[in-house]
Amino acid sequence: MNENPVFSFWRAEAPLILASKSAGRRQVLAQAGLPFESRPADVDERAIEAGLGAVGPDAIALALARAKASVVSAKAPGRLTLGADQVASCEGRVFGKAETIEKAAELLRFLSGRSHRLHSAVALLGDGAVLFETVAHADLTMRPLSEEFIAAYLNEMGEAALASAGAYQVEGLGAQLFSQVVGDHWTIMGLPILPLLDALRREGALIS
């Protein structure tokens, strides 16, 4: 189902397909005026990561974004399909979504008082072929967090804390975690929209 109206500057015959259920990514696409359908990809992220071997966070994020787009693109001939993923890195450690609230608490304790980098990847596919892919970065410094705050924050967030790398969404309560943020808002939300828009223009899906 189309999740937003077709704007006059969209030129593709059908809406973009987003291979994700992320509310943040849907919000970014809608605000940018891109008509799209959300078709979450069913992939084993841990298995994909394990198969990559010793690679850096950019490669991990790109592999996950590409895998998600590939699964959905294979079932949507003639359509543009967008995959996206995000991982974070800090002092040699790479991490994505926490699997439990307890692990989210451990992650926040580790990030407390430290700076970390978000690696936000997008992959645009058409008929299974990669048309465009990139990784954008943002650097965030987390203020020192007390145990009382971590407990209160996770109590308020609940399962939503498990939906994003780093156990936060900066556009919500996650804003309370940080003392400094360097990078564009879209990258932090997991979808670097400006390079994606350029790619869609090159593919003729948008008016130049």
**Uncertain regions: pLDDT < 50 for 5+ in a row?**
none
| Major β-sheet annotation | 7 strands, mixed
Total helices: the number is 7
**Inertia-based shape:** globular
Give a brief outline of the structure:
The protein has 208 residues and is an alpha/beta fold.
What does this structure look like?
- By secondary structure, this protein is of the alpha/beta class.
- It has one domain: Maf protein (Alpha-Beta Complex).
- It contains seven helices and seven strands; from the N terminus they run E-H-E-H-H-E-E-H-E-E-H-E-H-H.
- Strands 1, 2, 3, 4, 5, 6 and 7 form a seven-stranded mixed beta sheet that branches.
- Strand 3 and strand 4 form a beta hairpin.
- The chain is globular.
- It starts with 15 loop residues before the first strand and ends in a 6-residue tail after the last helix.
- The mean pLDDT is 92.
Write the layout of secondary structure elements.
Blueprint: E1 16-18, H1 23-31, E2 36-38, H2 45-52, H3 57-73, E3 80-90, E4 93-95, H4 101-111, E5 115-126, E6 129-142, H5 147-157, E7 178-182, H6 185-188, H7 193-202
Parallel strand pairs: 1-2, 1-3
Antiparallel strand pairs: 3-4, 3-5, 5-6, 6-7
Helix pairs in contact: 2-3, 4-5
